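Re: the 254-residue chain
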Amino acid sequence: MGAAFAKGVIGARIVEPSEVMLADVDESKLDKCSALGCYVTTNNSEAAGYADVILLAVKPALVSTVLSEMAVAIGSHKLLVSIAAGVKIAAIEKQVGPDTPVIRAMPNTPCRIGCGAIGFSLGTSASSRHAAIAERLFGAVGLAVEVPERLLDAVTGLSGSGPAYVYVMIEALSDAGVRVGLPRDLSLKLAAQTVMGAAKMVLVEYEHPARLKDQVTSPGGTTIAGLDALERAGFRSAIIEAVKAATNRAEELG
């Protein structure tokens, strides 16, 4: 994910490659990032010292260790952005000090292709200027929205875990296409393109999905027959329950 953000900000010309340094203990991962033209290192402290904005993209269990390694280089003049799932702002500020501006974010995997959805929250010392920096950083890989930290678990349940729900839907649509006679490769392409196109209609035309649904649904037609089957199968309730379950689990992990 860190490499995805680096690729995004470089590709969007927010920064030059020479202004980015990636740190990882796995040198093979760093070798793959060399094509970006940025600096790489296995030393977290060196990377933190180099940067004005530090992106903490590690597993939650490693956050404390990595922050300890960067402690000397972190100060009130640097912005620390964490995308470590479940690690609260208070826990980070306790380790780096309340004067260091901290932003906590929840991205999702489509950030890797520039189509992510990111919710972020400001820490005690983070200002509107820091929020603007975060929006530029996150905007390079998708849509960014600022929310109170108490809502980040809900963001996790919806957009953080949401791609998995959509993949299941695409797989089901593809299976259904095969069931009614379409070749597998064609069915999968049509299913994925249909989901992408419908989602883009919501974002581009900024219409409520119910209105867009009604535009496709003719009296006594094929679409209403399909929607009737979805309602009888509890499709809508299943999606709601999935988001609730993922949100509850995020709260437990936090």
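The beta strands are 21-23, 39-41, 53-56, 79-82, 102-106, 116-122, 142-146.
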